[in-house]
User: What shape does this take?
Amino acid sequence: MPISRIVKVAAAVPVLFAAAAGFSALPALRGSFPMPPSAACAAWNGAQPSEPQASLTGVAMLSSCQVLAVGDVLGPNNFTALAMRFGGTSWWQQASAAPGASSSLHALAVTSGTNGWAAGTYANANGTHALIEYWNGTVWARQAVPEPGRGKWSTALFGVAASSESGAWAVGNYRTRAGHLRTLIVAWNGTAWRQVASPNPGGAGRDDRLTSVTVISARDAWAVGYYQDARSHRRVLVLHWDGSSWRQERTPSFSRSADAMLFGVTAMSASDAWAVGYLIHPGSRTLVLHWDGRNWARQVTPDPDPSGDVLSGVAGASPSNVWAVGQSKESSGHESGLILHWNGVIWTQLPSPGPDSGDSARLIAVTTSGPDDAWAVGAYRTPNGYAQGLFLHWNGRTWQARQER
Assistant: This one.
């Protein structure tokens, strides 16, 4: 009997329409290579791949006609890492290099058509381990990842970003022998991945998590997530890399009884960065923070249903073109994709299409190369209760998606 799944989302993220855990929200890093006009790929009609029990959690553009996406597929007994590629007219599956009995890819970053990374996790008889796969333009290959505790502790990566072939970051967490989560940051130097010291403001006996990372230069990068305070409330966590160390940055304060978490971060420059997530006080409301070069400040954002709104991913192409995606849960229990856009002045909500109007859906990651070219991915639930990977494309006028029956 097939296993019916709604949508799998990460342990680091609130489950609004999923029954299982394991999702990360990551905006794919915009590459520094040229992007041809999106009109060259107008042949795509919005048709969704018929990959059952799939969830997409990362997306990145090689060009307007070449896009990569990652996630996982639920089988009879476990999850299997999923890699997809778009070639201008359709999406197709590629072979992943993930080992183990179960695996998932949570995030994706590229710097060129022949250089990129995907980060996630896999499980074997010895436990759960961090996973990084490298893309050379043709195939995915696994790379060795340093793990605290010599691999004896559970380790997972939820975010990855890159600036060049010899410069990349991946972030996540590991579980200590005492059972608490600690932040994990690893860096790629062109030859190997190494662990870099990272703050854990929660302190002993509490959890600290990193969910996303973005890089501007070798001396400028951001990582976000959340931690538990002394009262066990979750607080936003923002870390900055200055070229020598990662340090916690001051962020806006919220009510002592509120919980706040960040799941996505992106930056256009040293004085223009965005982080997204959600705030519980009460219900679940969209949370967007902006960095202006001096301070992080909360922004006014739409909340179509403040009882169940979450932002999972963010990406920008310019100071006046930033996208944030996630999910909104209506009072009826129906979930739909949530899309917000920043035009340089205000955040506005745009319609989020689904393959069928009655299907529940959520968006997890987004990437963009310009005002008329963006992709968002996630998953939707069909009437029979199965999850399917969801792909949306922005053509400068509307977001497009449909299901071929």
Remarks:
- Residues 121 and 143 are 12 Å apart (CA to CA).
- The chain has one domain: 8-400.
- Confidence is low (pLDDT under 50) at residues 1-40.
